[in-house]
Amino acid sequence: MTLILLLEQIFNGLQLGVTLFLIAAGLTLILGIMDFVFLAHGAQVMIGAYAAASLTALTGNFYLGILLAIPVTFASGYLLEFLLIRHLYRRSHMDQVLATFGLILFFNELIRIGFGPAALFSSLPASLSGFVTILPETPYPVFRLLVIGVGLACALGIHLLVSRTKIGAMVRAGANNEAMTAALGVNIRVLRRLVFAAGACFAGIAGMMLGPLTAVEPGMGEPLLILSLVVIIIGGIGSVRGAFIAAILIGVVDTLGRVLLPVILRSFMDQAAADGAGPALASMMVYILMSLVLVVRPSGLFPPKG
Amino acid sequence: MKRLSMAAVAAAMVMTGVAQADTVKVGYMTTLSGSAGTIGKEMQNAVNLAMEHTGGKLGGMDAEVIFADDQRKPDVAKQLANRLVKSDRVDVVAGVIWSNLLMAIHKPVTRSGTLLIGSNAGPSPIAGKDCHPNFVSMSWQNDQTPEGMGKYMQDAGVKSVYLMAPNYQAGKDMMAGFKRHYKGEIVAEIYTKLGQADFQAELSTLRAARPEATFIFQPGGMGINFVKQWHQAGLDQVSKLYSVFTVDNLSLPALQEIALGVVSTQTWSPDLDNDMNRRFVADYKAKFGGYPSYYAAQAYDTMMAIDHAIAKAGSADTEAMRAVLAKGGIPTTRGALAMNSNQFPIQNIYLREAVLDADGMATTKITGTVFENHADAYAADCQF
User: Fold this and answer.
1) Which of A52, A268, B29, B317 is most exposed by smallest CB count within 10 Å?
2) CB atoms B232 and A275 under 8 Å
3) What residues contact residue A71 under an 8 Å CB cut-off, 6+ apart?
4) Cα–Cα dist A211/A223, whole Å
5) Do B200 and A15 touch (CB under 8 A)?
6) A150 or A271: which carries more pLDDT confidence?
7) Considering only A137-141, B8-12, B73-77, which range has the smallest mean pLDDT?
8) Among candidates A120, A121, A158, A124, which has minimal Cα distance to A144?
9) 3-state class of A300 per DSSP?
10) How far does the CA of residue B232 sit from the closest CA of chain A (Å)?
């Protein structure tokens, strides 16, 4: 493997990483700050992808479709919190797991009833279908560069929002001591609803970015949810910075594992065995990494202070 | 009085028993729930369309189809098969999409003396050493289709090929079938994760290897992902894409123009020119608004085979129906289908390409015939 190819693969890993971060950012705040176990975050990814694909088809314009889909995902998170989630905060974690697992089934079936079980068509406008030569002899799809750009911009936005704004200060205060924050006149209930809706919105954006790359179909968000849970465990539950670093780490490890492991195994095993063991081992890599992190630092790499 | 009513009930039961004897019962097993539910729905549509075309009868007898949703789980399939055979007392069990599910129900159904007709999966064991006379395939043996692709690429003088399939049994079978007739250079044989969503890393490696051709088996949603990303990465300029069971009338509505030009092999295509196929495709499109996939065609053929068998045999007796089907000459959407000694079809393997039809709808078109009357590789191992 040449150095250029290795760099390109690291780039691919970065792209997977920022997608995971968009999903994990909301999840880590919901789990860490609101102390709420939410398993239906993958459904928000699916809602984002479906909203963007159908609104793009409706308006005939990809950018307009995305622009209209963002408020849809925010509203879906807001409504979900208002209708169901807020009644579950005081229940046990087991109740939350059961209720939000039920939500996964509910949303998948809802999408199936509304859009049919078949995958939806979604593609890119001509302006985003081109290539940029990022490295010598390495044309890279413009859209994938855009995904990285949007992901990094969102990460910066979330960072500034949490650390530099008054709302961010309230969120952090609420995480530290809810009763005291409420006593100081902060409306904790509204704050939670906004955090939840923002989380849903970022996961929705991840879905919109995935739509043109993968099949838009019921249940499309679930495999990513599992990886996102790994991300927030490694990053430290409740830490946005941790989620970002862990997401990039997972993205790169998973990508390089898939590409390099079969090659490495083939150097000392016969081909049939290496072909079988390579992909199996590669899909275990991120979980092995998670186990190692948990052994060394049980509360993750960057546990939130306080 | 009480005794009299009991007698009446008993008489009524005997009567219904007699009435039922004239009704043919078919248990049709497919996957109707979960992410693969799209496939099952197509097959269900096609079975219902076939029953409409036969006037609700099979071989002139009143008929009833009982659908069973296997949920893509072997244990559920086994339970359902037992229920169909023992409590519903069906005359024929038909359908089954997945090889592992067919393997699970093959023994219980065939050994109960019930006829089992496969509509899709064709795993090699039941075509070879574990074959049973009560099983008839109305689809293909798994290896037949990729064998056609290997043969075509060998004959076309393709020098080097890059292979990619999901890491599970069918993926390995497909690649083995391909290699049976392709003798050129295999640049790499990559097994991806089953259900993989993003292939960018694999595509980067592929671009660096610069193979003349790429052959993939990525069924269902994986195929949609793969072809989209292949197209977006501009790999059409690097390598020519060939596939089996990836670009079909299920994935084409989600791909549309993106898949144009991808070449596949298949035993059937909507444009196959014969009376039964023309009627099937036209009515299917009119009724369900879209092209049928090969899954639908095979489901339709299965019902037509049952219709043919009962009409010729004059009854729904297992051995009599089997004897008719074993002779071949079964009217299907693939023309009159011939049968091998292991009761798997001997059929043409066509080359087909994704194109747009006159209305701008994406479909597949036959561009050539790779094998005429192609038999599977396992029939010699099958002794009834």
Assistant:
1) A268
2) no
3) none
4) 15
5) yes
6) A150
7) B8-12
8) A124
9) coil
10) 6
Residues in chain A: 306
Closest CB to A215 among B41, B190, B224: B224
**Residue bearing tokens 């009357």:** B373
Q: Report angle CA B121, B76, B191 to the nearest 5 degrees.
A: 45
Q: What is the CA radius of gyration of chain B?
A: 22
Identify the pLDDT of residue B22.
Answer: 75
> How many residues are recorded in chain B?
384
Integer Cα distance of B113 and B336 in angstroms: 27
* Beta strands A131-135; A138-141: pairing state: antiparallel
Q: Does an H or E element contain A79, and which?
A: helix A62-83
- Residue B3 CB neighbour total at 10 angstroms: 7
Q: How many CA atoms lie within 13 A of B345 on its CB side?
A: 32
pLDDT band at residue A39 using 50, 70 and 90 as cut-offs: very high
Burial of A75 (0-12, 13-18, 19+ CB in 10 A): middle
For the cut 90, the answer to whether the pLDDT of residue A129 exceeds it is no
Contact yes or no for B139/B120 (Cβ under 8 A): yes
Residue with the two structure tokens 């693939």: B334
Q: What value of ipTM does the predicted structure carry?
A: 0.83
Say what the pLDDT of residue A266 is: 82
Asked if A117 lies within 8 A of B228 by C-beta distance, the reply is: no
Closest residue on chain B to A111 (Cα): B35
Determine the 3-state secondary structure of A258 from DSSP: helix
Does A143 reach chain B within 8 Å, measured CB to CB? yes
Residue B184: both structure tokens together:
């050129």
Whether B41 and A212 lie within 8 Å, measured CB to CB: no
Separation of alpha carbons B268 and B271, rounded Å:
8
Q: Please, which residues have CB within 8 angstroms of residue A7's CB and are 6 or more apart in sequence?
A: A135
Q: Which residues pair with B64 in a beta bridge?
A: B25
Q: Which residue has the tokens 């993939």?
A: B216
User: B35 to chain A: which residues are within 8 Å by CB?
Assistant: 117, 217-219
User: DSSP 3-state assignment of B251?
Assistant: coil
**B40-45 own/partner pairs: CB under 8 Å, 24+ apart:** B40/B69, B40/B97, B41/A117, B42/B250, B42/B292, B42/B293, B42/B295, B42/B296, B42/B299, B43/B95, B43/B97, B43/B119, B43/B120, B43/B295, B43/B296, B43/B298, B43/B299, B44/B299, B45/B284, B45/B287, B45/B288, B45/B292, B45/B296
Separation CA B240–CA B50 (nearest Å): 38
For the whole prediction, is pTM greater than 0.90? Answer: no
Cα distance between residue B71 and residue B77, in whole Å? 8
pLDDT given for residue B19 in this prediction: 42
Q: Exposed, middle or buried by CB within 10 Å (0-12, 13-18, 19+), for A269?
A: middle
What does the block give as tokens for A202? 């970022």
Q: From B166, which residue of chain A is nearest by alpha-carbon distance?
A: A279
CB A44 within 8 A of CB A79: no
Q: Give the mean model confidence (pLDDT) for residues B43-67.
A: 96
DSSP string over B183-223? -SEEEEEEEEPTT----HHHHHHHHHH--SEEEE---THHH
* Interface subset of A 202-261, CB within 8 angstroms of B: 210, 212-220, 223-224, 255, 258-259
Q: Which range is least confidently modeled, A58-67, A168-177, B89-98?
A: A168-177
Residues 6 or more apart whose CB falls under 8 angstroms from that of B45 comprise B284, B287, B288, B292, B296
